[in-house]
Amino acid sequence: MKEKKQSLKSKVTYVKKNWMLYIFFLMPALLLTIIFKYVPMGGLLIAFKDYNVIKGVLGSPWVGLEYFKRFLSSPDFMNYLMNTLKVSIYGLLWGFPVPIILALLLNRIRKEGIKKEDIGREAFLERAWAWKKQYGGRIVEQLKKLGSSCDWTRERFTMDEGCSKAVKEVFIKYYQEGLIYRGKRIINWCPKCLTSISDAEVEYEVQAGHFWHLRYPLKDGSGYLELATTRPETLLGDTAVAVNPNDERYKDLVGKTLILPLVHREIPIVADDYVEMDFGTGVVKITPAHDPNDFEVGLRHNLEVINVMTDDAKIVDAYPKYAGMDRYEARKAIVEDLKAEGALVEIEDYSHNVGTCYRCGTTVEPRVSKQWFVKMKPLAQPAIDAVKSGKTKFVPERFNKIYFHWLENIKDWCISRQLWWGHQIPAFYCDDCDEMTVTKESSAVCPKCGKPMRQDPDTLDTWFSSALWPFSTLGWPDNTEELKYFYPTNTLVTGYDIIFFWVVRMMFSGLKNMGEVPFDTVLIHGLVRDEQGRKMSKSLGNGIDPLKVIDEYGADALRFMLATGNAPGNDMRYSDDKVKAARNFANKLWNASRFIMMNLPEDFQYHGLPEDLELE
After folding, report:
1. Most confident stretch, 45-54, 158-167, 330-339, 498-507
2. Which uninterrupted H or E stretch holds 368?
3. Highest mean pLDDT among 24-33, 168-177, 474-483, 533-542
């Protein structure tokens, strides 16, 4: 037994020291990035019998219905690696993708011609839990067919009782330390999903648009300022025009007043370093309610914040001529009116990056809203230091640039969501005296007036609970034997596309709540794309059902295809021809093995391979 244990230690030590070999073992687990985008499962925890073997947190498999977004981070990877190393697996904790349930349920409700508000929160949650039960089982069966031999009795869900307890504990801890606050700030808003989303959840795409060049006349009649905008509909909320304080062209105009076209509101000319002198005319319209940069300018100059759009991106009633118009419909009408007023100078074609919602692809609308935020600067610095000091390293190393870029430029994290499925924010409000309290309890009585309080209807960003995965699944905040045994882990295996979604957040959460990094190595893999190199998505209809592939070619063929022709951190392309070639190769191995076995003498005994093999 002692010799066996020593052998195991030497094998694991060898793998730790020889990362290229480790990466080679990792390759056969790569599979099928497909239709669902950014669906955090929280991840997996692999646990082993011996303290000296590798403890690893696996990245999110992101699975949904018949489709798998990825496979490298699935239990099958560890099956292969541990079987190769002859390491026995003690247990595995499995997470379930919360947003997939929500997306599927909302789609079903929409097909029925009703809104979630029509059936109410309780009925909606009943449906959601039923769907979780139905599709959670289906996902597990898919993984079993792929050959995953997990300890399924240890399955965990980010909304189960243990994880929910950890979420409340962290929320209240951060709130008491001043790291969580509620305030009115500019956030990313999806007019279709009707919820806020974080900066990490905004996907940028190049869209063809225009620069509308406009004239804003000076109040004293001495002239005008010319500026350009890509969003003339937000003109309704302009509260200033800004120039650079070092721009000689406009120095004498700073402090003067302009008349806002169409609205005819008086707005000031302010000087701010945000304005680039050599971009366009060097003059920028400032709309604090609908642009993140303008919001910061507004704070510096104490400008009024005027919201001109409803939750679903229609013009508010304060502007009767455009009230109820969709933002793009209003844009056309406003441009025509600007032309009629003589304020439109020219229209210039212009392509630029536009933020879209990661769930539905709708163009995001920046807007000022009262939300819950996590103060990120104090949490980010220890996570930066941990990687710079070598406590945690990325493999391949180049991916730490993404990690550093995100943390070094991080803004406060908007964590509240206007959704019903998720961890409800543990804050309560008194409608009689406006008192607010944060508590672990499921109900609260106002400490001032003694009246019952109502809970905040918003839920937490699903990544808030996923960030706690390395320790919440082990029983934290209780000091369990599992927590003492397995934390910190050694290796996180995940895709490069969720470094800022998940890796960053697990790092600062582990350091803050456990005092140690959650893992010492982050092993990054690429994505499987379609034959044309495109990311698999529902809109393109290019997703692959691995079960159909397995039925046609076999699991071995699919896994072998993914094991060949890819390098650490790089994407690979899926094609049926590759799977067919892998199947044919597997058949040749099978037939060759059968031929050898059939022709071995009856008294044949296998004594292992010689230490040195020479080519003949």
Report:
1. 330-339
2. strand 365-374
3. 168-177
Mean pLDDT for 516-542 is 84
Rounded-to-integer distance, Cα 364 and Cα 362, Å = 6
Dihedral pair phi/psi, residue 347, rounded to 5°: -120, 125
Q: How far apart are CA 471 and CA 275, in angstroms?
A: 45
CB-CB neighbours of 342 under 10 Å: 10
Is residue 13 very low, low, confident or very high in pLDDT (cuts 50, 70, 90)?
Answer: very low
Per residue, what are the HEC states of 369-405?
EEEEEECCHHHHHHHHHHHHCCCCEEECHHHHHHHHH
**Contact between residue 89 and residue 120 where contact means Cβ atoms under 8 Å apart:** no
Q: Would the pLDDT of 573 be above 50?
A: yes
* Token pair listed for 315: 């013009």
Q: Are 259 and 217 in contact (CB under 8 A)?
A: yes
Distances in whole angstroms, Cα of residue 585 to Cα of each of 386, 557, 578, 579, 581: 45, 8, 11, 10, 6
How far, in Å, are 16, 19, 239, 556, 610 from residue 83 at the CA level?
A: 16, 17, 65, 15, 22
CB atoms within 10 A of CB 25: 17
Let me know: does 403 contact 387? Beta carbons within 8 Å.
yes
∠ CA 406-410-412 to the nearest 5 degrees? 145
Contact at 8 Å (CB) between 78 and 95?
no
Please, what's the largest Cα pairwise distance for the chain?
Answer: 109
Number of helices (H) and strands (E) in the chain: give both, helices first: 18, 26
List pLDDT tens digits, range 143-163.
777 777 666 777 777 788 888
- What's at 120, amino acid-wise? G
Comparison of pLDDT for 446 and 569, the residue scoring more: 446
Quick check: 42 and 505 in contact, CB under 8 A?
Answer: no
Distance of CA 234 to the CA centre of its chain: 29
Is residue 290 within a helix (H) or strand (E), and if so which, with residue range?
A: none
Can you tell me the distance from the alpha carbon of 554 to that of 548, in angstroms, rounded to the nearest whole number? 9
Closest CA to 242 of 234, 253, 230: 253
Q: Which two tokens stand for residue 376?
A: 């990120």
Q: Structure tokens of 526?
A: 């690429």
> Is the model more confident about 56 or about 220?
220
Q: How far apart are the two ends of the chain, measured CA to CA in Å?
A: 38
Residue type at 86 in one-letter notation:
K
- Which residues does residue 241 pair with via DSSP β-bridges, in sequence order? 269, 285
Determine the pLDDT at residue 442: 87
Cβ proximity of 499 and 523 under 8 Å: no
Peptide bond preceding 396 in cis form (omega within 30 of 0): yes
Q: Which residue has the tokens 């019998």?
A: 49
Would you tell me how many other CB atoms lie within 10 Å of the CB of residue 247? 17
Count the neighbouring beta carbons within 10 Å of the beta carbon of residue 574: 22
What is the C-alpha radius of gyration for the chain, rounded to an integer number of angstroms?
Answer: 29
